[in-house]
Design a protein that fits this description.
- This protein has a single domain, classed as MFS general substrate transporter like domains (Growth Hormone, Chain: A, Up-down Bundle), CATH 1.20.1250.
- The chain starts with a helix and ends in a 12-residue tail after the last helix.
- Helix 14 packs antiparallel against helix 19.
- The protein is globular and about 65 Å long.
- Helices cover 71% and strands 0% of the residues.
- This is Major facilitator superfamily domain-containing protein.
- It comes from Hypoxylon rubiginosum.
Length: 463
């Protein structure tokens, strides 16, 4: 996978995208007469070269988050002697370097080029994941979890940043969703994978939870295509006028942090990600609390992710057709709040079907709409500087949400998880408010641009 990722990630070095409000000059001459290019064929070429490798890379990396939660049901706490909040600490420590190094990692991505930086991240991730399968104590587990967070800090925001420069805004939602759905596929596949790996218990003297990490790590470790005229057409098509090699200055950072939309976008992703990470991390534990054995728990963990995948694919298609994001986010939040309200108030063996349907609604309204939130925010940013900062900034707040979520569902509160459901419902309600505020600011800016005759011709905002 490392050779594959190094070869394929190298394709991501040439695209550029729209002009930035944080301006640096290295303009593309839009007046240049370019030879005829079949645009739809070029977009398909990008789709088949860019998205599959990014999708595969992030599926195997996100599997770690899912498989850690599954490993907790396969005997990891008992074998390592974890008690009290130690399993939650093991989940949480992943997010400390993940949060701290998001923005520095995107800056290093610009400095060393994607083929080098993302390849290093993926290879490191795979090696450390294999090592996680051989840990013998709580402290060694914490070390591997910390290193995994450090390695993964460069993959997710870096990939969003790169995708944002390959497509026009009206083309972007389906591509963002295709990439973001890798997290949903990992959630569903993780449950199926762990149900199969459970049968390896005792093979080579290793328990099944160790095989979860070893096999995943092995998969991760084992894992110039545009002509010049096509490159120039792509730059013109996406109205780019900024070099992707320009440095990010302290003034850029101050300007970026001074804008309310950047804070609202990050807070919107944070408030959605708390229930989102709760689904990813604790669905197996919630299902197990209903009295299922290990195999049944893993298999019952798959349908919520399948429901989320179906919802995100349909809504992404409609969003691109209508060129709207906000209504679909609002619909998802309604599903999320409905699902959480049911889980918070209805309990008992006789209401299993209702509770299980509520988990599916929660998954659809959280991880099923995350790609829309990221796309809406990132594609309203302008140029390489804003997007390199903005993609990492938003995912950083998602990491903070993950840190919060790991302590929301405590084993002592099973099977009702009053704290976890209450916190998720509160943050989902906050997301509704922040979503409306962000949408109003974008609407205000669009009206201001219209009054000024369109403003910057390379700048378009979407609701």
């Amino acid at each position: 996978m490392a050779d594959l990722s190094k070869a394929c990630v190298g394709i991501l070095n040439s695209g550029s995208r729209p002009g930035s409000a944080i301006s640096h000059s290295s303009p593309v001459d839009h007046a240049t007469v370019l030879p005829p290019i079949n645009e739809s064929k070029l977009v398909r070429k990008i789709d088949f070269r860019v998205l599959p490798i990014l999708f595969i890379v992030y599926v195997v990396s996100f599997l770690d988050r899912v498989n850690m939660s599954n490993a907790l049901t396969l005997g990891l706490p008992e074998e390592l002697g974890l008690t009290g909040q130690q399993p939650n600490v093991a989940l949480a420590i992943f997010f400390i370097p993940f949060i701290i190094f998001e923005i520095p990692s995107n800056l290093l991505l610009k400095r060393f080029r994607p083929r080098v930086w993302l390849s290093i991240c993926v290879l490191t991730f795979g090696v450390v994941t294999i090592g996680q399968g051989f840990v013998q104590s709580h402290s060694s587990l914490l070390v591997t979890r910390f290193l995994l967070g450090l390695a993964e800090s460069g993959i997710f925001p870096g990939s969003f940043y790169l995708i944002s420069f390959w497509y026009k805004r009206e083309e972007a939602q389906k591509r963002f969703t295709a990439y973001y759905s890798s997290t949903i596929v990992a959630g569903a596949f993780g449950g199926l994978l762990c149900s199969a790996i459970a049968n390896l218990n005792g093979v080579r003297g290793l328990t099944s939870w160790r095989w979860v990490f070893i096999l995943e790590g092995i998969v991760t470790v084992l894992a110039k295509w545009l002509s010049e005229s096509e490159r120039q057409f792509l730059l013109k098509k996406t109205e780019s006028n900024e070099s992707h090699t320009v440095p990010v200055t302290s003034k850029d950072m101050v300007t970026f942090l001074s804008r309310a939309t950047n804070w609202l976008g990050a807070l919107m992703y944070f408030s959605l990600s708390v229930p989102g990470f709760s689904v990813v991390y604790f669905v197996p534990s919630i299902v197990q609390g209903w009295g299922y054995n290990t195999l049944q728990t893993q298999l019952h963990s798959v349908p919520p992710f399948a429901a989320a995948l179906g919802f995100t694919l349909v809504s992404a298609y409609l969003s691109d057709r209508l060129r709207l994001h906000s209504p679909f986010i609002f619909l998802a939040l309604a599903l999320l709040i409905t699902g959480l309200a049911i889980l918070l108030t209805i309990h008992g063996t006789k209401t299993f079907s209702v509770e299980y349907a509520a988990i599916c609604l929660t998954a659809m309204g959280s991880i099923g709409i995350g790609g829309h939130v990221v796309c809406w925010y990132v594609m309203n940013l302008q140029g390489h500087v804003e997007r390199s900062l903005g993609s990492a900034w938003m995912i950083c707040f998602g990491g903070i949400a993950g840190l919060v979520a790991t302590f929301a569902f405590m084993k002592k509160e099973a099977p009702y998880y009053l704290t976890g459901y209450s916190l998720s419902l509160a943050t989902a309600s906050l997301c509704v408010v922040v979503h409306l505020c962000y949408g109003l600011l974008i609407w205000r800016d669009k009206r201001a641009m219209a009054r000024n005759g369109g403003g910057n011709p390379g700048r378009t905002l979407y609701l």
